[in-house]
Amino acid sequence: MGILMAEGLSAEIAVIGGTGVYDPGMLEERREVKVYTPYGAPSDLILLGTYGGRSVAFIPRHGRGHQIPPNRINNRANIWALKELGVQRIIASSAVGSLREDYKPGDFVITDQFIDRTKGRPDTFYEGGKICHISSADPVCPQLHDFFVDLAKELDLRVHPKGTYVCIEGPRFSTRAESRLFRMWGADIIGMTLYPEIVLAREAEICYVSVAMVTDYDVWAEKPVSTQEIIETMRRNSDNFKRLIMEAIPRIPRERTCRCHEALREATL
Question: Which domains, ranges and CATH numbers included, belong to the chain?
Answer without folding.
Answer: 3-262 (3.40.50.1580)
